């Protein structure tokens, strides 16, 4: 099992930096591997979410629940992405949102403080940590621009391009919430694109 975990981590982070198996061996004791079933919650609003949960397989979402009980998708996550609450990790505040698997997921979780320690001991892990934050900022910047500048159909086309085959594993209701449109609007867009 450990060999499989080693290769999963190696393959996950190799696109970011020229990681070695020795680098992964150093980090492996800090990671916990867990399988989540579809709809299972990784952490809830109000939790102190002190781990970074890397998605090795599957798709999931971040979401808020407003005072009326309505869900609002903050973000969708697929293989290579991560679940974390920056509020918990950086400020020591409870998470303001939930993280949930939308399909069966395999997760590799590491305490953020251990990740920071690794990054100080090993330049490759330091580069990985920096690149993760860079990717997060870029993703948020692109999502913000899409909401402000693009019509719903263009946002959906962008979603399909970004998520590729993984888009088939995400329920359309979740996609509509992610795009900030109704289920009916998404159905109309899909019909116009010949996808229904």
Task: Explain how this protein is built.
The model has no long low-confidence stretch (mean pLDDT 95). The longest helix has 27 residues, at 123-149. The chain has eight helices and eight strands; from the N terminus they run ααββββββαββααααα. The strands form two sheets. It has a four-stranded antiparallel sheet with strand order 1-8-3-6. A four-stranded antiparallel sheet has the order 2-7-4-5. By secondary structure, the protein is an alpha+beta fold. Helices cover 47% and strands 22% of the residues.
Strands, total number: 8
Terminus-to-terminus distance: 42 Å
Which class do the helix and strand fractions yield? alpha+beta
Order of H and E elements: HHEEEEEEHEEHHHHH
The portion of residues assigned to helices is 40-55%
Radius of gyration: 18 Å
Overall residue-averaged pLDDT value: 95
Spatial ordering of strands, largest sheet: 1-8-3-6
Q: Proportion of β residues?
A: 15-25%
The stretches of 5 or more residues where confidence is low (pLDDT under 50) are: none
Largest sheet: 4 strands, antiparallel
Shape: globular
How many helices does DSSP assign? 8
List the helices and strands and how they pair.
Layout: H1 2-13, H2 21-27, E1 31-36, E2 41-43, E3 51-57, E4 59-65, E5 71-78, E6 82-83, H3 86-91, E7 98-101, E8 105-111, H4 112-121, H5 123-149, H6 152-163, H7 172-179, H8 183-192
Antiparallel strand pairs: 1-8, 2-7, 3-6, 3-8, 4-5, 4-7
Helix pairs in contact: 4-5
């Amino acid at each position: 099992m450990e060999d499989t975990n080693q290769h999963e981590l190696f393959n996950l982070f190799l696109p970011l930096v020229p990681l070695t198996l020795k680098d992964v061996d150093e980090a492996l004791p800090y990671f916990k591997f867990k399988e989540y079933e579809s709809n299972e919650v990784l952490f809830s609003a109000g939790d102190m979410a002190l781990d970074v949960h890397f998605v090795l397989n599957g798709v999931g979402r971040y979401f808020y629940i407003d005072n009326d009980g309505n869900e609002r998708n903050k973000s969708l996550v697929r293989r290579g992405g991560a679940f974390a609450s920056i509020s918990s990790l950086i400020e020591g505040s409870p998470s303001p949102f939930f993280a949930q698997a939308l399909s069966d997921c395999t997760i590799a979780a590491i305490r953020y403080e251990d990740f920071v320690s690794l990054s100080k001991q090993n330049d490759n892990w330091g580069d990985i940590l920096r690149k993760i934050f860079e990717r997060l900022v870029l993703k948020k910047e692109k999502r913000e621009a899409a909401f402000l500048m693009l019509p719903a159909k263009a946002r959906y086309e962008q979603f399909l391009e970004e998520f590729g085959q993984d888009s088939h594993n995400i329920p359309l209701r979740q996609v509509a919430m992610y795009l900030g449109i109704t289920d009916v609007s998404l159905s109309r867009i899909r019909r116009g694109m010949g996808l229904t």
